[in-house]
Amino acid sequence: MVTEVILPKLGQTMEEGAIVEWMKQVGDAVKRGDVLFTVESDKATLEVEAAARGFLRRILVQAGETVPVLSAVALLTKTADEDISGYQAGMAAAPAAVAEEPTPATATAPASIPVSEPEAEAAAGAGRIFASPRARKLAREKGVELALVSGSGPGGRIVEQDVAAYLEAAPKATPVARRLAEQAGLDLRTLAGTGPGGRITKEDVEAALAPQPSVTVPPMVSPVEPPVVSPVEPAVVSPAPVAQLRPAELLSELPMSGVRAVIARRMAESHQTTAPVTLTTEVDATRLVEAREWLKASLADELGFNVGYNDLLVIVAARVLREFPYMNARLAGDVIQQLDEVHVALAVDTDRGLLVPVIRDADHKRLAQVASELREVVGRAREGKALPDELSGSTFTITNLGMHEIDAFTPIINLPEVAILGVGRIKPRPAVFNGEITIRQMMWLSLTFDHRLVDGAPAARFLQRIKQLVEEPYLLLS
């Protein structure tokens, strides 16, 4: 009996995943619970365990390829010599019942389900072109007809490398140029490209397809009637030819995929669908600095690390969100929903892009607990090992650019939240304190909020309260 290993759905937002590495090779014995492969979603890299025992007989999706969730990625059999010749890669559909979301306690997920060989054989005559999602995406972006590409994957499946090889062998042309040439039946190899690096452009194809103007022969001038030119008529000087500007050469072309694609989509959606307004205020953070120094010494033995400003700001934001529930809300259709749970996210810069690990129920947790959890989820996010559910579900976000010497900025709202708090650097500056000019630790806070849900004055009161707790952190004990 053949068992399909499928790519499980590892979170509510996961739609596809890229195989990072196979931990088992074809022919290896597999036990239930063994890690078969690692997969990268748009948010994290996770391990996938075998849900059945047997032998790994065929790998259907190679490392580096991306496939939709619930796709078959490998085949297991009970014995090492079981006949699998009747199975055609990619033909058998895996039922959705195998998709199980992981709990926060585990970063692995089982993924295998048996499939009968008659089902695979029945689908074999469908006449489809089988290609990996990455191959289809590259072909779509470059305007390549997949029917023209030879597949080198299992069962003749077209993989991304096949499309890349086809593009390398074919004349360089923009996707629009390829489409125009294909529609007109024009062989691109007959054209000379004028684009960067000799690439054939839309204009090159249009010029080749444009009807050639008819050549008219000017009438002969009779030698007995030469044209008379007045001696006082000024000579016409032709302007010097304008130098042709050479198009800029491309340094590289990077696909908008993975985390970058998610960031692009969410930022554009936030900018287009919200009515953002940013409020800024200058804060005297001198006592916050003092409080952190005291807490560093007091909690060092318990935590094993130093309390950071982000830990304190999460506590402050959670407290104020509880006091001002209209800021802990979201828009659902035409209804503003005020949420009972306070989940504070922190924007984190990683090698894979901007991620927002979440501290759930932050308003019910002690500083030491928040600090420990924040380091755990931030660490996993930066290593690419965070669970998808650790990066979603927040009700408010904090983004801190102070370490990059940024004073104030206008952050973009993390939908579907109402607002986001931008934190600038803490810097010693001259300030008036108790009627005297002295050096104080000053910082800027920037609150961007959605004016559709909250008006300016209520949002200002929320930011004012945050400022008050930053300036007097001991009020958190009240």
What brief labels describe this structure?
478 residues, alpha+beta, OB fold (Dihydrolipoamide Acetyltransferase, E2P), Dihydrolipoamide Transferase, Chloramphenicol Acetyltransferase, 3 domains, seven-stranded mixed sheet, 10 helices
Describe the structure.
This protein has about 475 residues and is an alpha+beta fold. It has 3 domains: about 1-125, RNA polymerase II/Efflux pump adaptor protein, barrel-sandwich hybrid domain (OB fold (Dihydrolipoamide Acetyltransferase, E2P), Beta Barrel), CATH 2.40.50; about 135-205, Irregular (Dihydrolipoamide Transferase); about 270-475, Chloramphenicol Acetyltransferase (2-Layer Sandwich). About 25% of the residues lie in helices and about 20% in strands. The chain has helices at about 115-125, 135-140, 160-170, 175-185, 200-210, 260-275, 285-305, 310-325, 365-385, 455-470; strands at about 1-5, 15-20, 30, 35-40, 45-50, 55-60, 65-70, 70-75, 110, 115, 275-285, 330, 335-340, 345, 350, 355, 360, 395-400, 420-425, 425-435, 435-450. The strands form 5 sheets. Strands 11, 14, 17, 18, 19, 20 and 21 form a 7-stranded mixed beta sheet that branches. The chain has a 5-stranded antiparallel beta sheet with strand order 3-6-8-1-10, with no helix packed on it. It has a 5-stranded mixed beta sheet with strand order 7-2-4-5-9, with no helix packed on it. Strand 12 and strand 13 form a beta hairpin. Helix 2 (about 135-140) packs parallel to helix 3 (about 160-170), helix 8 (about 310-325) packs across helix 9 and helix 8 (about 310-325) crosses helix 10. It starts with a strand and ends in a 7-residue tail after the last helix.
